[in-house]
Every structure is written in structure tokens, then in C-alpha cells.
């Protein structure tokens, strides 16, 4: 479930745990590449159970913007503002 990962990834990175945040980014990127996190309205891929069964209903456009932001920051594609938006 990538929807809340952005906060965790950015917190790890902001507090000196870059290796750990990059490990999560690698895993998230692979999940996106494998199609685990995206689908149309009603597919339920924005939330999953611990057994990876689809559990949501809204589709994935909105919930995936935060993890994609975190991936882009960790990969150096985006530079976060100071202070970063989620810390306000």
C-alpha cells in the first residue's frame, strides 16, 4: 500500500536514514513497474490487505501522487521546498 509511504520515506531521509529510504524507494518503484499500485476506479488497488488483496474502491490517481513525490525527491528529480510541505 503506497498511499502513506511518502511520509515515512521522507522522514527516514530527512533524519539521516538515506539507505533505508532508498531501499523503500527501490521496492516502491518495482511495485509501480509491476502494476501493483495502479488501476481504474473500482479496482481497489489504493489499499491492500496484508495478503496483498485489493481493498479500496477509488482507483489510484490521487493516492499515488504522494509516493511518486517521495520517489522523485529521493532520486533527485525534485527538490523539496524549505520547509517541506508535509512538515508544516
Whole-number total of structural domains: 1
How much strand content do the residues show?
under 5%
Measured between the Cα atoms of the first and last residue, the distance is 24 Å
User: What's the Cα radius of gyration?
Assistant: 13 Å
Largest sheet: none
Class from secondary-structure proportions: mainly alpha
The ordered H/E elements are: HHH
Count of DSSP H/I helices = 3
| Tertiary shape | globular
Low-confidence stretches: none
Q: How many strands?
A: 0
Mean pLDDT across residues: 80
Percent helix = 40-55%
Protein model, in words:
- This protein has 88 residues and is mostly helical.
- The chain has one domain.
- It is built from three helices and no strands.
- Helix 1 (5-14) packs antiparallel against helix 2 (18-33).
- The radius of gyration is 13 Å and the shape is globular.
- It starts with a helix and ends in a 14-residue tail after the last helix.
Briefly characterize the structure.
With 88 residues, this protein is mostly helical. It is built from 3 helices and no strands.
Annotate the secondary structure layout.
Layout: H1 5-14, H2 18-33, H3 65-74
Helix pairs in contact: 1-2, 1-3, 2-3
Annotation keywords:
mainly alpha, 88 residues, globular
Amino acid at each position: 500500500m503506497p498511499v502513506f509511504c511518502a511520509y515515512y520515506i521522507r522522514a527516514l531521509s530527512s533524519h539521516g536514514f538515506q539507505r533505508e529510504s532508498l531501499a523503500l524507494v527501490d521496492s516502491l518503484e518495482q511495485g509501480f513497474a509491476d502494476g501493483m499500485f495502479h488501476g481504474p476506479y473500482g479496482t481497489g488497488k489504493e489499499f491492500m490487505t496484508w495478503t496483498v488483496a485489493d481493498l479500496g474502491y477509488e482507483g489510484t490517481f490521487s493516492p499515488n501522487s504522494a509516493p511518486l513525490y517521495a520517489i522523485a525527491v529521493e532520486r533527485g528529480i525534485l527538490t523539496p521546498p524549505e520547509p517541506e510541505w508535509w512538515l508544516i
